[in-house]
Amino acid sequence: MKKYQIPAYIQMFYFLLTIIWPFVHLESFLKITGPKTDIWLVKTVSLLLFPYILLIVYVLRIKQSPLVILAIMLCCTGLAGIDLYYYLNNVIKWTYMIDCILEILFIGYWIFILKIRSENKSVPNEMR
User: Per residue in 60-80, pLDDT tens?
Assistant: First the structure.
């Protein structure tokens, strides 16, 4: 595994965990994230992350498209923004700030990849 790919694989694993967790063990999910009134919405939002896993696979294995990377970054930005807004308004638990920080780190990673790509194309072939 190339060093540039490790954060992308971590993001894929994190998204996969986020998708599966409410379906596999809702009780522990709610214990960590706080009570929810609309469980269907929790599961819907979880499933909406799946296409972003496919986009990351596309960038890693097929083509490093700036447009696809932008879509991944917009997903992370939306998730981080929602986490921050609702935490600051005392709607969700502090545990969502962990997600916010991770999403910001993922954004930083993709900015790094785009910067390297535009500067000198030194990203490994698997990432182009």
Answer: 999 889 999 999 999 999 999
Q: How far is the CA of 118 from the CAs of 20, 60, 89, 109, in angstroms?
A: 35, 17, 39, 14
The answer to whether the CB of 11 falls within 8 A of the CB of 73 is: no
| Helix H or strand E encompassing 95 | helix 95-119
- Let me know: does 96 contact 33? Beta carbons within 8 Å: yes
Would you give the distance in Å from CA 110 to the centre of its chain? 11
Taking the whole predicted model, whether its pTM rises above 0.85 is answered as yes
Place of tokens 């910001």: 104
**Confidence category of residue 126, pLDDT binned at 50, 70, 90:** low
H or E element in which residue 17 lies: helix 6-24
Cα separation of 106 and 15, whole Å? 11
Contact indicator for 52, 72 with CB cutoff of 8 Å: yes
Q: Which two tokens stand for residue 64?
A: 């490093």
> What pLDDT does residue 122 have?
53
pLDDT at 15 over 70: yes
